[in-house]
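Recall the central idea of this unit: under ordinary conditions, the amino acid sequence of a chain determines the structure it adopts. In this exercise we apply that idea directly, starting from the sequence alone.
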Amino acid sequence: MEGGETVGRRALCVGINQFKNYPQAALRGCVNDAYAMSSLLQEKFGFRIEDITLLTDADAFKANIMSHLESMVEDARRGRCNILVFSFSSHGTRIPDLDGDEDDAADEAFCPYDLSQTGSVWDPEYIISDDELNDLFVALPDNVSLEVFLDTCHSGTGIKSIDFLLTRRPRYLPPPSLEAFKDVEGRTSRGFAGKYVQPLRTDHIL
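Accordingly, the structure predicted from this sequence is:
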């Protein structure tokens, strides 16, 4: 968070343990993450409490998250602030890449409180894609510093693999049906489907 003179600071800290339509997908610790980030920004980086918006659980629905992000970006464009922070702690997932900008043909996506599906796939009205975040943040002026912290999984593997311990919950939700899972996860060789998905299974894998 270094750079020129600081005009103002804005932060949005999101933590979601509960999901409106998927109570079985509940997490532990994400709300605490949001509060911890807020405290860190105040104690170490000069943010005032009024600079920070906290959205947790039922308040962290997609429209509300995006509205606050859009407001932050607009404040930066108008010169009211030049340091922005966005932290998001929740489930992650993957969706088909529709614009051809991903080598693996799948976009990363992040799950708000009102996550929902339409038919056999995630409903784009109730999920946040990496493309949406990119389209929003690309509008920031060059003099604005943006820090984004995404504490989610998008594959359930790699650095988050420790979350497969029986006492932990991975921050990953697969696509909501076997067909959608095959469409997205089958585009790359991850070895996940054969281990965790059974034929004709349509519930969520946690």
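DSSP finds five helices and nine strands in the chain.
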